[in-house]
Design a protein that fits this description.
- The chain is mainly β.
- It has a single domain, classed as Beta Barrel (Porin), CATH 2.40.160.40.
- It contains four helices and 15 strands.
- A 14-stranded antiparallel beta barrel has the order 2-3-4-5-6-7-8-9-10-11-12-13-14-15.
- It is globular.
- The N and C termini lie far apart (about 40 Å).
- About 35% of the residues are buried.
Length: about 300
């Protein structure tokens, strides 16, 4: 993968056109299940340390491996480890987002662009009703010969009702300290707040997911939703989508714009499938990134005990 770009500004613009801004790795799904559900798995139990650290499931010991192929040959990989710690569960994530090799069109000099994260987290259940979790990470980012690194944290809470068939949660994510910016200009860390819910009907093999996400630096918001359908044991089908707040407001004031809302939801849809075996879980996901292209990913989770 090569790009002929004269400088950092053009490189950054290229990433923005692809849907990738600075530190955008902080917003990427951590696994193929989240990818196929448009990153809406924030409060339902999951094997991975996700957006809301209070939602990671209690289990003895698991290792997970994820790989994404993103538009413009951008690659993402992650290794996840989690294990019960007393009355809670601890986890460790190592992630790498590789933008590839960059060649300066004037000097023909080669350089690389990537983001790397090391993140740890801990979740504790209180009275088997409320879960609280916290995670913290170190992000190192390199674009050509420009470097940046920062510390950040996520804090979340989750509560479940109706025999755990209904769950609600709240998380504040990517709150941190920029240790070194790329240049003299300090770009903001993309901090967000996330309100999430899930509902699992009692007599139907479905799980509904929903997220309302607000960007704290510019006050923009969007709503994402996901659906998991279990047609038979060990197989799960998934579907997700996303709508911006501005589109919802347009529909509210002009019902004729409903077709626009439907088209936006379809353009940003995601799909996937999961297979659960005795000691292994395999998830596959596909996300439509609109005019940019498609993101494809798969995850493998090993249940050792």
């Amino acid at each position: 993968m090569h790009r002929y770009l004269p400088g950092l500004i053009i490189i950054t613009l290229n990433f923005l056109l692809l849907g990738f801004g600075s530190y955008e790795i902080l917003h990427l799904p951590n696994d193929a299940r989240s990818l196929s559900l448009n990153n809406t798995t924030s409060v339902y139990n999951g094997s991975f340390l996700n957006n809301n650290p209070a939602s990671i499931s209690m289990h003895p010991f698991r290792m997970s491996y994820s790989f994404f192929y993103l538009p413009a040959n951008i690659l993402f990989g992650e290794i996840h480890y989690s294990e019960n710690r007393g009355k809670g569960v601890g986890s460790l994530n190592i992630s790498l987002l590789n933008y590839g090799t960059i060649i300066d069109s004037k000097t023909e000099k080669k350089s690389h662009a990537f983001d790397a994260i090391v993140k740890i987290g801990y979740k504790r259940e209180l009275k088997n009703i409320v879960s609280v979790g916290i995670s913290g990470g170190y992000l190192f980012s390199s674009i050509a010969e420009f470097y940046s690194h920062l510390l950040y944290s996520n804090i979340g809470i989750r509560s479940r009702f109706l025999e755990k068939r209904l769950g609600v949660g709240l998380s504040v994510e990517n709150i941190g300290k920029l240790l070194k910016p790329y240049t003299d200009y300090q770009e903001p860390i993309p901090a967000i707040s996330r309100t999430s819910f899930y509902y699992e009907p009692k007599h139907v093999s479905l799980i509904f997911h929903g997220n309302i996400v607000k960007n704290l630096d510019n006050n923009s918001s969007y709503f994402s939703s996901g659906l998991e359908f279990i047609p038979k044991h060990q197989v799960i089908l998934r579907l997700g989508g996303q709508i911006m707040e501005e589109t919802v407001k347009e529909i509210f004031y002009n019902i004729k714009e409903f077709e626009h809302l439907l088209q936006e939801y379809i353009d940003g849809m995601s799909v996937g499938v999961g297979f659960e075996f005795n000691k292994t879980i395999v998830d596959i996901g596909l996300l439509n990134m609109k005019s940019v292209g498609f993101a494809f990913g798969f995850s493998i989770t090993k249940k050792y005990r």
